[in-house]
Please model this.
Amino acid sequence: MSARFDAERLRGEFPLLAQEINGKPLVYLDNAATTQKPARVIDAVAGYYRTINSNVHRGAHTLSDRATGAFEDARDSVRAFINAPSREQVIWTRGTTESINLVAHSFARGRLGAGDRILVSGMAHHSNIVPWQLAAQAAGASVVPIPVTDDARLDLDAFRSLLDARVRLVALEHVSNAMGTIHPVAEIIAAAHAAGVPVLLDGAQSVGHLQVDVQALDVDFYAFSGHKMFAPTGIGVLYGKRAWLEAMAPYQGGGEMIETVEFDRTTYARLPYRFEAGTPHIAGAIGMAAAIDWLGGIDREAAARHEDELLAHALERARELPGFRLLGRAPQKVAVLSFVLDGAHPQDVGTLLDQQGVAVRSGHHCAQPVMSRFGVPGTVRASFSLYNTHAEVERLFAALHKVRSFL
Ligand code: 7TS
Model:
């Protein structure tokens, strides 16, 4: 166990975790779906509505100035958090899904022709598949998966041989939500760039676990969601290299994204506002900055070690559970335990765990192709965060032994 990392103390900052569900203290192991929020984030959102709520960039009065200041400061926080070269390259979106759709619409569509290809991860979340299919269908292009190995890595040899002159973009997750695999993204990006192909990384599952530096990665686009890194739902970010963003067509039209509008001619705002039509999720952005601030007070390497130890503990317990089959055995992975119990439907396992106060997700995790790859309709997924404890690993496995005896 990690001596330096005090998960017990940390979880005290999460009001939601201190409750009982179905008569048992909650064991929340659905962090890949969404993380819980520390009081600091909840207070920042409430504080915004209590004291400075007003629309941004209107400049008409003091409250609007304050809201604009807080909203734009939040953009600066995100810039520093991912080490983007400039604040203009940090675009607010509703989340990873919208960030990817933005790139598919404004970047990919214009670059695709008949016979072109977009390479995607064979274990991608649907939000990193379907937007590309929509863009590809319109152009007569195709979306081609990078094959997945038996231990749930991307097959890099296959990737290299797929990386031919037809490929216009590579899009993959930094960390897999269904398997937990951390992909060797630096190597993948270097190979793609050597072939002249830009890369989009879906960071939905990485920002809550790993420190991300978009310049060190040299990635072309990075998409992520606030709600998976202790911030509110409905707010997310698209980072892009400046040259790409400058060249991209608008995504949605409306207020905020224009410079001048006439019926015969409209000109668009500069970055980042060109891609931010309409009133943004101001409270969400402020909550995101609070989450980043909160994360800044945490030794993130120690947190990652703690999560690794939770996973190692869980794997040890799993060996004692009859019929437990783990999917996703990549050597580099986050603390995601995706498994099936022989003879039990994942949905039933999830329900029986819930009755014992243990929250997991069961199903295909919006990654149906990788479920097909492993020949299962779905899995049970326990996904850990930095506030989970070794006692909760014990609770999970005690509950699973009970499930086993019921079924
Ligand atoms: N990409 C990955 C890798 C994800 O895990 C998710 C959400 C998304 C994209 C979409 O993020 P959103 O914030 O736009 O919805 N993943 C999950 C999950 O694993 N369980 O629930 C949501």
